[in-house]
Amino acid sequence: MSWSMFDRLVFILAPNTIFRSPKKKQRHMKYQLATFLIQYGQRGSDVLDVASQLGPRLGTVHLYCRRVTRALRELRSHHLGWLGDE
What we know:
Elements: H1 3-13, H2 29-41, H3 47-54, H4 58-74, H5 76-79
Helix pairs in contact: 2-4, 3-4
């Protein structure tokens, strides 16, 4: 993925409230997206491999991937629809 595409994806996903928590400060959304892309972009990399590359704990890798997946799924309602619904 190019840097410009990565930045565009960050721009699209960043407004999602899942990346903001009033209780505990989260890592920047870019870091969470990078974790997701490494995890799933390397043919389902081992979580331990991703954690060793980026530094988060194993459970945190799962958490970041879950957040990004949810944010991507929520985009469906904004960008996808049935043909002929207009």
